Amino acid sequence: MSKDNFLKNSLILTLVNSTTGILKFIFAIILSKKLGSEGMGLYGLIMPIYDLFCCLICGGLIAAISKESSIYFSKKDFKNLNKSVKTCLSFVIIWACIIALLVFINSNYIGKFIIKDSRSIYSIKAICPALVFVGLSSILKGYFYGTEKVKIPAFIDIFEKTIRITVVVIVINLFSLKEITKTVTSVYIALSLGELLSFIFLYVFYKIERNKKYNFYSYSNKLEGRAQLLFNILLVSIPLCINEFLTTTIYATSTLITPRRLVSAGIIHSEALSMIGKFSGMSLSIIFFPFIVINSMSIVLIPDLSKSLYNKDYFSLENRIKEVITISFLIGISTLVVCISIPNVLGNLFFNRNDLSQYIKLASLSAPFSYVCASTYSILNGINKQGILLRNSVLTAIEELILIYILTGIPEINILGYGISLIITSITGVILNLREIKKICYLEFSPINLLIYILVGTLTGYILIVLNNIITSTFVLKSMFLIITGFTMFFTIITLLTKHISNK
């Protein structure tokens, strides 16, 4: 993938994912109003269970298929490319149906004894169809990412999110749902419906792409057997699946023990769920909204690095890694600056709440490290260090579990322990990952540039605080102006200073 294609595809995904992110944000705002903070807490307890079984079904598949697809596509080996996709679809539909059936049968046990909230049982049953469709969709998304058709899954994702929001609003309003059990279940039914529609559209576009004229001509000297093609993909995806499953299991455990530790700290269960909803369901949604850019880069980064390794183009490999790490850190710093300068504005704008400021401030301290950490995980994946990725992910996940268990049980800290653990584990992940990446390529980051980033961030934060105090416009316009000004000012000053230094 050329630099132009990398930047072009990253930009396309960022723009489209920004739309998706806005839709997710709107969805979170709607949920907060329809479910309340307690309902958001319950919704947040079920989601890790869903993520856990998604990892078991299709963990690592998108990355594995995109890597294989990019290699076949670069060689114009369309026969083996399409045969790989067809083989994986057959394998996953069987595997996903087995897992979904087991989840449905054991939903009562999961709800009562794992989540420890019987109100979650119907929601667990509702996610079972989604597990099958997510598994199948992951294969087709990997195909499109590997063949540089990133716009197709991106636009389908927008459509899916729009349908999901619409269904939730219609169902809750049409049936006047007030009870938490019914409203949360309706949200997960909408999730399954959205994943079904997403798979249908992905498959239709895949058939169109597959049947294009160039797919009938392949430069392959040998047509691989189905077993070999499946083995090639599983060889990459299984370590990633184990990694995602183990880390998601630990993270799910962390999420599930949080309300119990808060209760042990003297907080009643309903209030504990409310605190979780405000921190993880609302505040973290604000902090990680710019993460859309990181996610977009990561999607096209993995096949890009794989192709550079395959072609032994180590110069491009090194430059791409430096570029991605720098961009991730700058986005994290700018997010920290905006969130720590105007936290009350953000809480009121997006969730109409005045009690999120301390959560937003604390969580924002993790942004620079969390963003870089996520990028370094994608880099390790792209340079075929799945074993190292597994080890580091598990270590940081265990660290987070221990920290959450200890900190959230302290009455004076309670839910803030969640944020403290996020900061510490993100720093740990960055240190571990960069140490391994440096073994493959030379990385050097200028201390002068780091000092510039900090000074520009401090200046931007100070200006935002001043503007927030002197501007008397309507709240929404003022808030949007402050947010846009914060990010624009930071990156404009950084760009001008960087160019000035490089010209010298």
TrEMBL record:
<feature type="transmembrane region" description="Helical">
    <location>
        <begin position="479"/>
        <end position="498"/>
    </location>
</feature>
<feature type="transmembrane region" description="Helical">
    <location>
        <begin position="324"/>
        <end position="346"/>
    </location>
</feature>
<dbReference type="InterPro" id="IPR014249">
    <property type="entry name" value="Spore_V_B"/>
</dbReference>
<dbReference type="InterPro" id="IPR002797">
    <property type="entry name" value="Polysacc_synth"/>
</dbReference>
<dbReference type="Pfam" id="PF01943">
    <property type="entry name" value="Polysacc_synt"/>
</dbReference>
<feature type="transmembrane region" description="Helical">
    <location>
        <begin position="187"/>
        <end position="208"/>
    </location>
</feature>
<feature type="transmembrane region" description="Helical">
    <location>
        <begin position="358"/>
        <end position="380"/>
    </location>
</feature>
<feature type="transmembrane region" description="Helical">
    <location>
        <begin position="12"/>
        <end position="31"/>
    </location>
</feature>
<comment type="similarity">
    <text>Belongs to the multi antimicrobial extrusion (MATE) (TC 2.A.66.1) family.</text>
</comment>
<feature type="transmembrane region" description="Helical">
    <location>
        <begin position="446"/>
        <end position="467"/>
    </location>
</feature>
<dbReference type="GO" id="GO:0005886">
    <property type="term" value="C:plasma membrane"/>
</dbReference>
<feature type="transmembrane region" description="Helical">
    <location>
        <begin position="229"/>
        <end position="252"/>
    </location>
</feature>
<feature type="transmembrane region" description="Helical">
    <location>
        <begin position="43"/>
        <end position="66"/>
    </location>
</feature>
<keyword id="KW-0812">Transmembrane</keyword>
<keyword id="KW-0472">Membrane</keyword>
<protein>
    <recommendedName>
        <fullName>Multidrug-efflux transporter</fullName>
    </recommendedName>
</protein>
<keyword id="KW-0813">Transport</keyword>
<feature type="transmembrane region" description="Helical">
    <location>
        <begin position="122"/>
        <end position="146"/>
    </location>
</feature>
<feature type="transmembrane region" description="Helical">
    <location>
        <begin position="158"/>
        <end position="175"/>
    </location>
</feature>
<feature type="transmembrane region" description="Helical">
    <location>
        <begin position="416"/>
        <end position="434"/>
    </location>
</feature>
<keyword id="KW-1133">Transmembrane helix</keyword>
<dbReference type="InterPro" id="IPR050222">
    <property type="entry name" value="MATE_MdtK"/>
</dbReference>
<feature type="transmembrane region" description="Helical">
    <location>
        <begin position="392"/>
        <end position="410"/>
    </location>
</feature>
<feature type="transmembrane region" description="Helical">
    <location>
        <begin position="282"/>
        <end position="303"/>
    </location>
</feature>
<feature type="transmembrane region" description="Helical">
    <location>
        <begin position="87"/>
        <end position="110"/>
    </location>
</feature>
<dbReference type="InterPro" id="IPR024923">
    <property type="entry name" value="PG_synth_SpoVB"/>
</dbReference>
